[in-house]
Write a structure and sequence with these properties.
The protein has about 110 residues and is mainly alpha-helical. It has one domain. The radius of gyration is 14 Å and the shape is elongated.
Length: about 110
């Protein structure tokens, strides 16, 4: 379906606009933090989030970026660990799965 990928991109876009234009957008509050945590928790708890497919990798890579955008890096270190330790040769042919793993380094860097 297109619902989850579109939602993740929409949320990322919101964080992007707020980050670069906070005086106009204003600060985000605890209600958004709670909602983002709930959404990311549900996504990463889903067994489908572990599927090694290019389609899943597309959403997964954006969700990993959303971890960083929402500044929830410490909360999702277990997800980062899972992606890094789960990487094997089956990922090599799947650009989006490699991108998802690569995006974990941004989470670790910040």
């Amino acid at each position: 379906t297109t619902g989850v990928p579109q939602l993740v991109l929409y949320l990322r876009a919101g964080y992007y606009v707020q980050w670069y234009n906070e005086p106009v957008v204003g600060p985000y509050g605890p209600a958004l933090t709670t909602a983002i945590r709930s959404a990311l928790d549900a996504f990463f708890a889903s067994p489908r989030s572990r599927d090694v497919t290019d389609a899943n990798g597309q959403t997964l890579s954006e969700a990993v970026i959303l971890i960083d955008s929402s500044q929830e890096n410490a909360r999702y270190l277990d997800v980062v660990r899972r992606l890094l330790t789960g990487y094997d040769t089956s990922y090599n042919a799947l650009w989006n799965m490699r991108a998802a793993v690569n995006n974990t380094f941004t989470v670790l860097f910040r």
